[in-house]
Design brief:
The chain is of the alpha+beta class. The chain contains 8 helices and 14 strands. It has a 7-stranded mixed beta sheet, with helices on both faces. It has a 5-stranded mixed beta sheet with strand order 1-2-7-5-6. Strands 3-4 form a two-stranded antiparallel sheet. A hairpin with a 2-residue loop joins strand 3 and strand 4. The termini are far apart.
Amino acid sequence: MSIQCPTPNHEEEVVLLGHGAGGRLTAELLDGTILPAVDGAGPLEDAALLPGRPGLVMSTDSFVVSPLFFPGGDIGSLAVHGTVNDLAMRGAWPLALSVSLIIEEGLPLAELRSVMASLGKAAQDAGVPVITGDTKVVGRGAADRLFINTTGIGQRHELLYPSAASARPDDVVLLSGPIGLHGTTVLSTREGLGFESDIASDTRPLHRLVRTLAPLGAAVHVLRDPTRGGLAAALNEIARDSSVAVEIEESAVPVPEAVASACDLLGLDPLVVANEGCLVAFVDADAAEGALAALRSLPEGAQAVRIGEVLPRGPQGRVTLRTLVGARRIVELPLGEQLPRIC
């Protein structure tokens, strides 16, 4: 008689909510499953150049934010702003958008009309036409009310060639405005925390702000909007793709008081909270003051500040924070989802 040990019971691998958070789990999902299937390689940018079409840029994004409406915006305006901004981070002016809707059966038509009116107004205000799209309705429980996918085509400014892989030693790091407003507003509205009475999402288009940087041309090395994973994720991705060491000053990073209070209550780091209306720019040190003046010339960049620099030497791919007391701590790429359904 033979005795066999039972086969070990390995838990099946599944997709987790954190795989969509823009942090380390997202990177693992992309590197291990998605990119190999499509021969993806190189730095992961907010938008991509169209092969064989010089100057044309394309981006696509899906929006699953909950709730659909929040102070400062809604899923409709957010969908437009998010895609316009992804194009802008490659130095591109938006030319056209597509909009696809996945609607859950039972969604009140009044809410859908409100979302679409907001989406249309956001597109009109950004100066970009919606030229095509698609609509699908799924059964109750097959989606959560409404999901929106937008794809954008843009024309890159001939003087701008920003890339997440182009940061250089001694670059100055600029931030166009305060952080944490979008993520804390959406979370507070969803959970009824009450902070939304003091703050509103910063969702807005940034392409006009980027256009003010065009005269600086090649001095603008990197542009990135710190959405999922917040400023921490954006800086870590840039440091990784550019193989540089980045250091920022805690005292220089603008965190609104209500955002700081919400993060203290929830045990969150403002650096990992999503934003939808600010950008990070890495520019030549000699061009930093000119870039700041350009950003501050428009309302969406009025609070632009210098927050750090690329170190001349240091561990490649590392981001550090000089704290208020002068110590240094490593700013890690977020692991997974701390604030789900933010965008």
